[in-house]
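just leaving the lab so this will be short. below you get a single protein, a line of residues and a line of whole numbers that encode the local backbone shape. id like you to explain what the token line says about the fold, in plain words if possible. thanks a lot i owe you, the record is right below:

…
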Amino acid sequence: MAYTASLASLIVAFASLAHTQNLQVPFVPDTQFPIPLLGYGTWNLDKSNVSDAVSFALQTGYRHLDCAAIYNNQKDVGKGIAEGLDKIGLDRGDIWVTSKLWNDHHGTTDNVEEGLDITLADLGLEYLDLYLMHWPVSSADGPSKLEYLDTWHAMEKLLDTGKVRYIGVSNFDPPQLKDLIEHSRTKPAVHQFELHPYLQQTKWVQWHKDHGIHVTAYSPLANVNPTYGAPSDEDDPPLLLANEVLTNIALIRGCTPAQVALAWGIHRGTSVIPKSSHALYIEENFRSTSCALQDSDYEEITDLGKKYLKRFNNPSDGYGVPLFKGLDDA
């Protein structure tokens, strides 16, 4: 059956973003989380035009922005938010802003809240819609080590402050996430991790659906991100947007390969956060909401994930900490 329903209303529309200080509550399976499924990522934006790019993204129609302390650009992102909202005549409550706690602010309640306060000041915001623990790794008191429970319990307390609406995690593996849930009063609302046609992690995504945890896919265009480097040998998958499976689907459906990849991610029920500093690509990615794929397209992309399996972001060696235990291409 053709998958022809437009995704635009689903992606851009929110559930009510009330400004009350309600505590985060557990979610049941199949609960639609009120995060727009198409977001704009701010990792590795061209430093020369961060503010302009963020403002343009909002003017284009994006209502979900993904940020992080470690990106070292949140002041410029904040300027772009202010400018963009002013130009389109919207208020802070009309957009969704996510940011992330960096490893150097793990541990105590004071340390975690300080990290949040710095982020809010940099962004020029009074609250975040979502605050994620960027990695289950702490460097707050010395060399990097696996640590997440004390930090999570400190993040739980942030829900009482009105400075965050929801809390979640990023880059956890199954043992870590199950351990966190077992020893906490608040389940993560969102888990953000690497997902794209070369790293589909279908069973892991389904586990989150079954447990009422929304998934955000970072690097949804895979190795297009220059940080990951170009394919270096025949064992590396080709650039995703040059892969003939995606290019053929794009040609048939009247889309671009990027739009095909993003539409695939959105169809899975995950939010996707592509980034670009170029107006042309910002607009192109946004139009993925009108890229209608067929069942046969999804089957081809599933097969592509069986042919190529590649995780591009794994800092285990740099941290000296094992990550992604039990996951594809760990």
In short: Residues 74-88 form the longest helix (15 residues). The longest strand covers residues 164-170. The radius of gyration is 19 Å. Strands lie at 40-41, 64-66, 96-101, 128-133, 137-138, 145-146, 164-170, 190-194, 214-218, 271-272.
